[in-house]
Amino acid sequence: MSMLLYKAWIETRVRFLAGLAGVAIITAWDLQHPRFNSMWKFLGIHDYGYYLWHSLYDESLQQIWAVCAVVLAFGGLIHEKTSGTVSFSLGLPVSRRRWLFTRLATVLMESIAIGLFAVLVIIVGSAAMQQTVSLSQVLLHTALMVAAGVFMIAVGNLCYALFPGNYLSLLYTIILLGVPYAWIQLQMQRMRIYEAFCAAHSCGKPSGFVSWAAYLTYLDIPHAMGGPWQLNWATIPWISLLVIWTLTALVLGVTVAYGDRSDY
Q1: In which band, very low, low, confident or very high, does the pLDDT at 151 lie, cut at 50, 70 and 90?
Q2: pTM of the predicted protein model
């Protein structure tokens, strides 16, 4: 098992190190004090913790982490087939499923490490700017980001299996995740506008559209990854997480079935 993990690490280490560098740059950029001051003046944000959540976990850090998770998920036996080493790997006394889940476990650990590295950058950067940050909140938001973001890993791995090639897989992954995301965000915006209008004009109960669109919140993966500003056991989006984990299991099931039937 340890040799399989090491083999997966050798394959992904360059992307992992690039992910660390990318997260460090994005996080350090958002931690700049002038940037905090400009947003504070524009939006009236007085709380540094709220700024960190809004700027990092609800936006830039979440996005760069998701990209890293997807790209790390590329590879495996499909990659070895293109490089000509798949015969050696398949000749070992290891099942295809074990190859797959060992590699996914490596990607998950690397994704967690990237998230924790961002925590380190936040703590050090905030201390350098003489700003106080809640370590518990930062760790909780990082854990939620990873817990909901496992879906990104599963989809990235499936797309690479179906469409081998880093650029082609990345394109299809962006389409597969981006198009539903944009549609859900549009529906959420329409729902919030309607609710605000009804609140101002006493429209009564929401329409059927709003009632139906409310269920889409459980599929709003970026919102689930960001979570609310003050995160605790009661405010964790548990229903969204259960939906995301169910979808992740289904995607992994498709990947396993495809891998078992593939002719390498």
Answers
A1: very high
A2: 0.84
